[in-house]
Input
Amino acid sequence: MHASSGELFDTGAEPRERSLGEGAALLRSFALAHEREILDALDGVIRAAPLRHMLTPGGLRMSVAMSNCGALGWISDRRGYRYAARDPESGKPWPQLPAAFARLAHDAASQAGFADFAPDACLINRYEAGAKLSLHQDRDEKDFSQPIVSVSLGLPAMFLFGGLRRNDRVSRIPLAHGDVVVWGGASRMRYHGVAPLKDGTHPRLGACRVNLTFRKAG
Ligand code: MD3
Ligand code: FE
Output
């Protein structure tokens, strides 16, 4: 076989699946097949657990607004970064992971070569114009052998993908509505971030970008 099966029927210059380095795969438009279910489920989650700007341990308000669904949610406050079973704003458990979310994350991981991915945490990041995520590593999870699946929705963004050391060179990867990226193996601990969002209007999500990040955190 000369190409991954995902490319067999592609004639254009842009493959549907592209490797971003060992263990990292970009699945262009992968979420679009179930777009309506995903956006409906997203509405339900953020009605039950509204987006909010968390504080960094240093006391700064994050420019990205966040919420979670699933058994565990990622939170930040003056006491640090961690996963918690309850929404600190309401004291209630985070909303359940919608079936459409679980299926999307599982199927994307499987497509990228990670069988049986069963996330217990979905972080929802909402970017408005100017919001950004500085270069960081994800290291609050228990098992770094588990991949991370991220789903981009709404306005496009420039994803910054560095190396294993903070000062390694950074590549810039444009991500659009429906794109899914799977990060595992040797890519799992690479530094990454998101450049400040440019303003615009997306037909489905308005003036923002939403990123869903699926993890096996506990
Ligand atoms: C590469 N979110 O929530 S998801 C985060 O678009 C986060 O909101 C970004 O980074 C966003 O922590 C990017 C993509 C992502 C997530 C985890 C990674 C890329 C990664 C872990 C290792 C390497
Ligand atoms: Fe991250």
